[in-house]
Amino acid sequence: MAQRLVVVGNGMVGHRLVSAVRERDGAGRWQVEVFGEEARPAYDRVALTSYVDTWDEARLRLADHDSEVTVRLGDPVVAIDRNARTVTSRSGLVRGYDALALATGSYPFVPPIPGHDLPGCHVYRTIDDLDRIREAAGRLRVGRRAALVVGGGLLGLEAAKALRDMGLSPHVVELAPWLMPLQVDEGGGALLRRLVTSLDVTVHAGTGTQAVEQDGERLIAKLGNGTELDVDLVVFAAGVRPRDSLAVEAGLARGERGGVAVDATCRTSDPAVWAVGECACVEGRVYGLVAPGYAMAEVVADRLLGGSATFAEADTSTKLKLLGVDVASFGDAHARAEGALEVVVNDAVAGSYKKLVLSDDAATLLGGVLVGDASAYAALRPLVGRPVPGDPVGLLSGAVSAGALPADAQVCSCHAVTRAAVDGAIAQGCADVPALKACTKAGTGCGSCVPMLRQLLTEAGVEQSTALCEHFTQSRVELFEIVRSTGVATFSELVTRYGTGRGCDICKPAVASMLASLGGGHVLDGERAALQDTNDHFLANIQRNGTYSVVPRIPGGEITPEKLMVIAEVARDYNLYTKITGGQRIDLFGATVEALPAIWRRLVDAGFESGHAYGKALRTVKSCVGSTWCRYGVQDSVRMAIELELRYRGLRSPHKLKAGVSGCARECAEARSKDFGVIATEHGWNLYVGGNGGFTPRHAQLLVSDVDSETLVRLIDRFLMFYVRTADRLQRTAAWLEAMEGGLDHLREVVVEDSLGICADLEAAMARHVASYADEWRGVLEDQEKLARFTSFVNAPGTPDPTVSFREERGQRVPVLLGVPEVVGR
Amino acid sequence: MTEATTVCALADLIPDRGAAALLPSGEQVAVFRTGSGELFALSNIDPFSRAAVLSRGIVGDLRGVPVVASPMHKQHFALRTGECVEDPAVSVPVYPVRVESGRVVVEAR
Ligand code: SRM
Ligand SMILES: Cc1cc2nc3c(=O)[nH]c(=O)nc-3n(C[C@H](O)[C@H](O)[C@H](O)COP(=O)(O)OP(=O)(O)OC[C@H]3O[C@@H](n4cnc5c(N)ncnc54)[C@H](O)[C@@H]3O)c2cc1C
Ligand code: SF4
Ligand code: FES
C-alpha cells in the first residue's frame, strides 16, 4: 500500500517538492496531500512584481500537479502531532502521515516601530498583499501620490517598481549606506542609486524609519536623519523571517537564528519530518532564494524514493532586473577572502559598474558584482573557484568564451546543470535552446543562463539558424528588409539573387506575404499565384475532403436583414453547410473549387467582399453592441470596430490578426484576447496589444489608455506595421512581443514615443495599404485568366471531383469521411 | 497495354503549380510543370488524408529534389518517384507524362 506524504505549504518549494516526487515515483509509492495557507494555486513568487502589469494571476501560476495529488488550498496546518503522526488543519481535517515535509516559507519582517500597524501600512510577499496595495492605491485621491518603502534590498526595489507602475512616487529608505547591501558593494551601490533615482525613485540611504504617524487620510514617516515624508502608504520590505512556529510548537529543533533545523539530507530532528525552502535552516544556514530551496526539494524527493542525495552549500549568486536595471552578484562579491584582489571597471558614461574578485595571486576567480550591464554574468558565474581565463579586464568586457568552462562547472544554477550535462544533451541531438530546456531543465528557472546555453550550442558546432528555410539563409525580418530596400518584386528574382534552389512551401508563401504587405497588386497576379498556399490560391479555406469554405466579411459583426437573406439564399442554392463562426460572421462550407466563382459572384454583387478567413491577414474586428443600445456603453464600439476592420482589411501579416472593440469595461467583445483590443473608457479608449486564444492563450497588455479615436488609430497603424516588418514567420503578436528585447516597454517606446524615429514611415506604409486596398474576390471575378484556374479538372472543367460525397446531419450536408487513411506502399 | 490521355495544352499549366486531370478510368492525376520546364504526373490523392488535392500543393525542391507539398497536412512527395520525404514507406503512384505537339499527354499505368 502507498505511504502517505503530507506537504505543509504550497509555495514555490513545496510545489517543486511535489513535482519532483511525482516525476520520480512512477511506481506510486507515495500518496501525496498538500496543505496551502494561501487560497490560490501555487504561483511564481519570484515574478510577483510582474503581477502589476496585468493583474492576472493566471500568468504567474505554476503547472498543476497530476490528479493523483490532493491539494487543499486556503486550509493551513495548525498543529502537528508527532507521536500520532498526524497533522490538523484549520478546517479541522486530521491527516496521518508517513513522511511530513514542511515548506512554510517566510513571513515579512516588520520592524516594531511606532505606527507600523496603522491602516495604510503593508507588506510585500503574496498576491493578496499586492491586491491590498492596489486597492489602497486606487482609493487615493488625485494629486501627487507617494509611497514609502522601508528597506532598500531586493524586495524593497521590487516593491518600489510595483508602486511606480501603479502610478505612485516611491521613496526607499535603507539603513545601510547603499542599496542592496547584501548583493553589491559600495561602488555598485552608488551607480545603482543613480540609475534608480533617474527612474523616479527617491533614495534615502544610511538612515532608518523611526515612526509612522497618521495625518488625516495620509501618513507621515519620520526618518532617523530628521526627514519627514508625507506619503499615502507604506510598504515594509525589510527582510523576511523563516516561518518555523509550527515546527517549534511540535518540539522540533530550531536553528540558532530561526528556521527549522535540518541536516544535509533536509531531515529535522524527527526522522519522519523534513523541511525545505526558506523555512529550513540547513546546517546552520537559512537561504532566502528560490534556487537553494529547489535543490532541497530535489534532495528530499530523492531520499523519499530511496536515494542518497545531500544538499551542498548552495550558490547564492543572483542576477536580477530591478526597475529595468541589471544587477548581478556572484561568489565572494564582497571580497571577504583573505588577501582578495579586486578589478573594477566603472564606466559612469555607459552607466555600468563591473567588479571581479580574484584570489591573492590573481589566479582564481572568487566572485564579482555587475550593475547596469550584467551581460557577462552567464559566462562569469560558472568560473567562480576556477582559474581566471585570460586578462581580467578583458573578461569584464564580456569576452569570455564558453569553451573556457570546465566540464563540471555549473551552467544553470537554478537547476544545478553542469556544462558536461549540457554538452551531453547536445551530443544526444538537442539542437536549440528549447530542446536543451526540455531535456536538461537548464534555462527554465530564472533564465539567466540562456545566453550561455546558446554559446555552448555554438561552441559544439550546432548552427543556430534563423534561416527561413533551406533556400534562404536570411530570417524573415532580414528578407523583409531586403525586399523593402531593393524593391525586388518577384520570388524568382529574390531566390536567384539572395537564395538557392527553387523554393518550397515555407519560403514561397512567406515571400508572397511580404510582397503583399509591401505593395498593391492582386495576390494572384502573375508569378505570385504559384507562391500561394492552397487557401490563398483559391481564396478559400480547404476542408478535410478537399472542398472549400466561404467567409464573406461582416465588419464588426453588423449586418442588415437584406444581406443576411443573400447569404441564406446562396447557402441554400449551392447547398452549403452554414455555421455562425466564433468571429461574429458566417461560414459556408462544402463548396467545390469550380463552384467558388459563381458563389462569390452572387456575394460580391450583393455588396460582400472577401473575409480573408484563408489569409495570414486581418480576420475580424469583433465588437459588442456598445453605447448605441447598451445601457452601460460609454463609446460607440460598433462604429469603431467597423472603422478598424475596414482600415486593416486585406493587410497581409506574419500571422493572422484579430481584434476586438468593447463599449465599456465589461468587455463583452473579449478584446483582451485579441492581437489588438480596444476598450472604451469615459474619456476615450484603452488600447491592449498581444493577446490571442488558440494553443497558448494570452491576455493582451495595456499599451496606452484614454486616447482619442484619432490617436488610437494612429497607434494601431504603427503597431501593426512594426509587427509586419519585424515579426518572424507565423509568429503571432503575443509571441513577437514576448521575444522582443525590452518587451512591452520597448514596444511603447517605439510606437508611442517614436524612439527609433520610424513612426512617420510606419504610418505612411499603412496609408499606402489603406489606399491600395481592393477586394480580392472582385479582382478574380473581373479577370478571365484568374477565373480559369477555378476548375476541378483541366481536361473536364465542369465535372465535380468524384471522391467528394456528402451525407446529411441535423438537416445539413456534411462530408462523408474519407475512411481510415489507407497508405500505399506499406 | 497502356492508354494515353491528352489532358491539356502545355501553356495551360502554370510553372511550379499543378493541375488535376481525370483519366477515362476515373483515376485522378496531378500534373505538374516545374519552373525549369520539367513535367511530372502523380496520383492526385493525398495518401494521408485521402482527399484528391495533391495538384493544389506548392511545388518546390528539398535538397535539390523536386517535390510537391500536400496542401492538407504539408507532407512532401518527390515528383520523380512519388515517395514521401517525411515517411519513405509511403508513396503515391507516378504516371508517365510527355508533351506531344504542345499538348500534355499522360499514360495510365
Ligand atoms: C470557422 C472557425 C470556427 C467556427 O466555426 O467558429 C475557425 C476555423 C478555423 N480555424 Fe480558428 N476558427 C474560428 C475562430 C477561431 C478563434 C475564435 C475567435 O477568433 O474569436 C480562435 C482563437 C482566437 C485566436 O485566434 O487567437 C481560433 C484559433 C485558431 C488557431 C490557433 C491560433 C493560435 O495562435 O494558436 C488556428 C491555427 C492557425 O491559425 O495557425 C486556427 C485555424 C483555423 C482554420 C483556418 C484551420 C484550417 O486551416 O483549416 C479553420 C478553418 C476555417 C474555415 O475553413 O473557414 N484557428 N479560431 C472560426 C472562424 C472565425 C472567423 O469568422 O474568421
Ligand atoms: C517580490 C519578491 C521577489 C523575489 N525575487 C527573487 C529572485 O529574484 N530570486 C530568488 O531566488 N528569489 C526571489 N524571491 C524569494 C523567493 O520567492 C523565495 O525564496 C521562494 O518563494 C521560497 O519558496 P518557499 O516555498 O520556501 O516559500 P514560499 O514561496 O513563501 O511558500 C510558502 C507557502 O507556505 C504557506 N504556509 C505557511 N505556513 C503554512 C501552514 N501552516 N500551512 C499551510 N501553508 C502554509 C505560505 O502561505 C506560502 O504560500 C523573491 C520574493 C519576493 C516576495
Ligand atoms: S462591453 Fe459594455 S457596452 Fe459592450 S455590450 Fe458589454 S456591457 Fe454593453
Ligand atoms: S540559472 Fe536560472 S534558469 Fe539557469
What report would you give on this structure?
- Chain B: One of its GO terms (biological process) is nitrate assimilation.
- Chain B: One of its GO terms (molecular function) is monooxygenase activity.
- Chain B: Keywords: 2Fe-2S, Iron, Iron-sulfur, Metal-binding, Nitrate assimilation, Oxidoreductase.
- Chain B: This is Nitrite reductase small subunit.
- The complex is a heterodimer of chains A (826) and B (109).
- With 826 residues, chain A is of the alpha/beta class.
- The longest helix of chain A is centred in the last third of the chain and has 18 residues, at 709-726.
- In chain A, the strands form eleven sheets. A five-stranded parallel sheet of chain A has the order 3-2-1-7-19, with helices on one face. In chain A, strands 9-16-10-11-12 form a five-stranded parallel sheet, covered by helices on one side. A five-stranded antiparallel sheet of chain A has the order 22-23-26-25-24.
- The radius of gyration of chain A is 31 Å and the shape is globular.
- In chain A, helix 1 (12-24) runs parallel beside helix 7 and helix 13 crosses helix 15 (507-518).
- With 109 residues, chain B is mainly beta.
- Chain B has a single domain (4-107), classed as Rieske Iron-sulfur Protein (3-layer Sandwich), CATH 2.102.10.
- Chain B has strands at residues 4-9, 17-22, 28-33, 39-43, 58-62, 65-69, 76-78, 97-100, 103-107.
- Chain B has a three-stranded antiparallel sheet, with no helix packed on it.
- The chains are: A alpha/beta (826), B mainly beta (109).
- The interface between A and B is large, with 45 and 49 residues.
- The structure holds siroheme, flavin-adenine dinucleotide (FAD), iron/sulfur cluster and FE2/S2 (inorganic) cluster (FES).
